[in-house]
Design brief:
It is a single chain. The chain has four helices and eight strands. With 190 residues, it is of the alpha/beta class. It has two domains: 127 residues, P-loop containing nucleotide triphosphate hydrolases (Rossmann fold, 3-Layer(aba) Sandwich); 37 residues, no CATH class. The strands form two sheets. It has a six-stranded parallel beta sheet, sandwiched between helices. Strands 3-4 form a two-stranded antiparallel sheet. The two termini are 27 Å apart.
């Protein structure tokens, strides 16, 4: 499945960075600030390794192990949907977006799916000595760094240590979605 961004009404923003840059730490700081502004945010997180939210011996684990797909466990406080996805090399982002769509968030932040063609905010720390994703990914719309950088044309520079400015940038994303859902121009003629 692919994403049809031209017709996607749900504002999406990828948070892309190399491991160790602080994606989760930043999201943890941004989410309460966005909630204070009335922005309902869903987060889709890519896990690189096998993970399990269930526990061996629990009824839900036993049902899933027996072949139920999906298993939905619910209480008055929360629910969890567990679905086996055998024969997939990577999670299907389009399918995951469809899972959160009925909840009608104002914004979906996508952590980790950096190869998918979706608008992104890159977090960059030169000290990690990794390449700048914005150089090769036309979907990077902004770069938040802890040092001044020379960025490709059309990429907004943000200070990774300025939480207020980052909150402003992310909070404004839903209103900007209609014009930000296309890749930036690279200046190369066909």
């Amino acid at each position: 499945m692919t994403l049809d961004l031209a017709n996607e009404t749900l504002p999406l923003l990828g948070i892309a960075a190399w491991s160790g840059t602080g994606k989760t730490t930043l999201l943890e700081a941004l989410l309460p600030r966005l909630a204070e502004r009335g922005v309902r945010v869903a987060v889709i997180k890519h896990a690189h390794h096998g993970f399990d939210v269930d526990q061996p011996g629990k009824d839900s684990y036993r049902m899933r192990a027996a072949g139920a797909a999906p298993v939905l466990v619910a209480s008055k406080a929360r629910f969890a949907l567990m679905m086996e996805t055998p024969n997939r090399t990577e999670p299907d982002l389009a399918m995951l977006i469809d899972q959160v769509r009925p909840l009608q968030p104002n914004l979906v932040l996508i952590e980790g799916f950096k190869a998918w063609p979706v608008p992104k905010l890159e977090l960059f720390r030169p000290v990690l000595e990794k390449p700048l994703l914005a150089e090769s990914d036309v979907w990077v719309k902004g770069v938040a760094s802890d040092e001044a950088l020379t960025l490709p044309e059309g990429v907004e520079a943000l200070d990774l240590n300025d939480l207020d400015a980052l909150t402003d940038y992310v909070a404004a994303w839903p209103e900007q979605w209609p014009r930000r859902r296309q890749p930036r121009k690279t200046g190369v003629s066909p």
